[in-house]
Amino acid sequence: MSAETSVRDETTADGRAVSLGLVVAVVLVAANLRATLTGVGPLLPAIERGSGLSPQWSGLLTTLPLLTFAATSPLVGRISHRLGTSRLLVLSLIVLAAGTVLRSLPSVALLFVGTVILSAAIACGNVLLPAVIRRSVPGHRIGAVSGLYVTVMGLVAAVSSGVSVPLAQALPGGWRTSLAWGAVLIVLALAVWIPRMRGDTAQGGPAAPRGATPWRSWLAWQVSLFMGLQSLAFYVTIAWLPSILVHEGVSAAEAGWMLFFYQVVGLLSSGFLPLLTRGRHDQRWAAVAASASIGAGFVVLLVSPQLALVSCVLLGLGGGACLVLALTFQSHRAGSTAQAPALAGMAQSIGYLVAAAGPLLLGILHDRTGGWSVPLIVVICLCVPMVAAGFGAGRDVQIKDPHSS
Predict the structure, then answer these.
(1) In 3D, which of 200, 199, 209 has the Cα closest to residue 77?
(2) Which of 19, 178, 343, 405 keeps 20 to 30 A from 61, CA to CA?
(3) Is 4's pLDDT higher than 60?
(4) Whether residue 215 sits in one domain with residue 192
C-alpha cells in the first residue's frame, strides 16, 4: 500500500487567518535558533587563548550542536505529545537560557556541557516550529510564514556572528560574556510564549494518537535527504569557503566579507522565495532549481575561483531557497497535525547527521590531497542526489497517516 496521499487534511488551519500574535511568537522562537551558535566561530581564537583548547577540541565544540540536533530531534515529537507543543516550547526556552548561562561560566567542562544543553533545547525549537505552522497556519500561507522565520533566523544569526567580537572587547568578562548575550532574546520569547500555554494540553489518549515516525515512507526519506544535503552544503560553505578563497590568493579579510555576502544573498533568497511560490503546493521545480544553483556555485568555485562573487551569489540564492523549502516540506508533507513533529524529527535527525559529516569529510579530503579540487568535486556530486530528493519531496502529496480515516 502506498505511504503517500494527495488528499489534503481539511481539518487543518486552512480556514483560519494567521494572527499577528502567532507570527510574532514564531519569529521570536526563530530568533533564538541560531543566535547562540553563530557567535562562537568568530570567538574561537579568543576561546582557545582563554581556555587552552586545542584546535581539535575547538572543532568538536563547533560540531557538538549538529550531533546534539541529530540525537535529540527524534525524541521531540514524543515529548510534545505528552506535554503539549506550547509547554514544550516554553520548557525548551528555559533550558536554552540555562545552557547559555552555563556555557559562559569560567569552566572548560561547562563550556561543553552548556553547549550540549542549549543545542538540545534548540533542537526542540527546530522540530516544533514546522509542527506549529502545520497546525496553526492555512496551507497557502505555510511557505510565507516558513520563509519569514527562516529570514529572521538567518538575520539574527548574521548579527550574532558580527557583534560577538565587538561585545567581547567592550564588555567585562570578554568572550564569556559575549557568549551569553543571546539570553536577552530568550527572555523576549518567553514573555510571548508563557501566555500561550493556556489551553495547551498534553495530546495523549485515544482521541489524539501520536504520529509515528514514518521510517517506511519513501516521501519522508526524500524530505529527510533533502534536508540533510542542503544542510551539508550550507555548513561546508560556512566552514571552508574562506579557506578555499585564501588558498586561491584572496586575503583573509576579503574572504570573510565574501562569506558575509553569501549569507546576505541567502537571506534575500529565503525572503523572496515565498512570494515566487505563493499558492503553489507543487514545489518540485523550485527545489530542482535551488539545488542546481548550489551545484553551479560550487562548479564556479572549482573551475573559476576568481569569480568568487558569482559563486557566492549562486550558493546564496540556492542555499536560502533550499532551507525554506526543506522546512516547508516538513509541514506540507505531513499527513496530519499529529504527524508533523514526527516527520520534522526524522528529517532533522537525519539531516544534521549528514550535515555534521560534511565539513569533516571535506577537511579530511583536503588534508589527504593538499588542495580543494577533490573536496569540491565531491560536494558537486552530492548536489545530484539533492536535486533528486528535492524533486521527490516537492511533489504535491502527503505521507499517509495510519490514524487518518
Answers:
(1) 209
(2) 343
(3) no
(4) no
Q: For residue 371, what is its C-alpha cell?
A: 588542495
Residue 109 belongs to domain spanning: 19-198
Domain-embedded: residue 13: no
- CB distance 81 to 204 below 8 Å: yes
- Average pLDDT on 165-184 reads 88
- For residue 255, the domain's CATH number is 1.20.1250.20
Question: pLDDT tens digit string along 7-34?
Answer: 344 344 444 456 788 888 889 999 998 8
Percent of the chain with pLDDT over 90: 32
Helix H, strand E, coil C: the string for the chain is CCCEECCCCCCCHHHCCCCHHHHHHHHHHHHCCCHHHHCHHHHHHHHHHHHCCCHHHHHHHHHHHHHHHHHHHHHHHHHHHHHCHHHHHHHHHHHHHHHHHHHHCCCHHHHHHHHHHHHHHHHHHHHHHHHHHHHHCCHHHHHHHHHHHHHHHHHHHHHHHHHHHHHHHHCCCCHHHHHCCCHHHHHHHHHHHCHHHCCCCCCCCCCCCCCCCCCCCHHHHHHHHHHHHHHHHHHHHHHHHHHHHHHCCCCHHHHHHHHHHHHHHHHHHHHHHHHHCCCCCCCHHHHHHHHHHHHHHHHHHHHCHHHHHHHHHHHHHHHHHHHHHHHHHHHHCCCCCCCHHHHHHHHHHHHHHHHHHHHHHHHHHHHHHCCCHHHHHHHHHHHHHHHHHHHHHCCCCEECCCCCC
